[in-house]
Amino acid sequence: MEYIGDILYDDVLLAESGRLIIFGAGAYGRRILHYLERNGVKKNIICFCDSNDELSGKEVEGVPVCDVGGICRRHSDATYLVAGKYSKEMYQILKEKGIQKTHVLFV
């Protein structure tokens, strides 16, 4: 894990070259998306990933939603953003898939 804390103090998220994946396409994931959009780094978002297979292949607010397993294999070097009441479980899934750069955020 790289960071745990308030999204407002996570300076890495606003770095221009960061490639970001938001885990969870629900309310918390959309909050993260809106924060990044307001701060001019929406272009750094590769996609949402979600463990709900019904969302895979769809879009949320113009951002594609991918399945967790596939996106972790293709983008293991990206920074993954996690928030919400299932953040512990999401973090564990990413850890099991070998993802090193995880930010657990309070939004």
Describe this structure in words.
The protein has a single domain, classed as NAD(P)-binding Rossmann-like Domain (Rossmann fold, 3-Layer(aba) Sandwich). The mean pLDDT is 94. It has 3 helices and 7 strands. The chain is α/β, with parallel strands linked by helices and 107 residues long. A 7-stranded mixed sheet has the order 1-7-6-2-3-5-4, sandwiched between helices.
Oligomer: single chain
Q: Number of domains in the coordinates?
A: 1
Total number of strands? 7
In CATH, the homologous superfamily goes by the name NAD(P)-binding Rossmann-like Domain
What is the CATH fold-level name? Rossmann fold
Major sheet strand order:
1-7-6-2-3-5-4
| Helix/strand structural class | alpha/beta
| Terminal-residue CA separation | 17 Å
Biggest β-sheet description? 7 strands, mixed
Number of helices: 3
Report mean pLDDT, rounded to a whole number.
94
> What Rg is obtained from the alpha carbons, in whole angstroms?
12 Å
Low-pLDDT runs: none
Label the overall shape.
Answer: globular
Q: What is the CATH architecture annotation?
A: 3-Layer(aba) Sandwich
Strand % is 25-35%
Task: Please give the CATH class.
Answer: Alpha Beta
Order of helices and strands: EEHEEEHEHE
The proportion of residues forming helix, as a percent range, comes to: 25-40%
Question: What are its keywords?
Answer:
alpha/beta, 107 residues, globular, 3 helices, Rossmann fold
